[in-house]
Design a protein that fits this description.
Strand order of the largest sheet: 1-4-5-6-7
Strand content: 25-35%
Radius of gyration: 14 Å
Distance between the termini: 16 Å
Number of helices: 1
Length: about 100
């Protein structure tokens, strides 16, 4: 299995969440929040699909989850309450187009 964590190979730590309950192990933990490096071109070209992927890692069971880009952007700007228990989604498997 392969998972795509964004358009970049570089990953940057964005901090820790407030205490949340992990959907996998049901423990209350502070998730580590990471994202791909958000380098964007300022151009309106529909061929470029640049978006930042935020993902959270449980320190207890190492499960990986993701959140919407808007929630991740708010978290990155310092709004710790922007990510809650109901925002966690499973990371989808990446299937390369051949």
């Amino acid at each position: 299995m392969e998972y795509r964590l964004g358009n970049s190979l570089r990953v940057k730590s964005r901090g820790e969440t407030l205490e949340l309950t992990c959907p996998n192990c049901n423990k209350k933990v502070n998730f580590g929040v990471f994202s791909n490096m958000d380098r964007r071109l300022v151009a309106d070209i529909s061929l470029l699909n640049c978006k930042t992927v935020y993902f959270l890692v449980c320190p207890e069971c190492a499960s990986v989850f993701t959140v919407d880009e808007a929630k991740g952007d708010s978290f990155k700007k310092g709004q710790k309450l922007s990510i809650g228990n109901f925002d966690l989604k499973t990371l989808k498997e990446f299937k390369a187009k051949i």
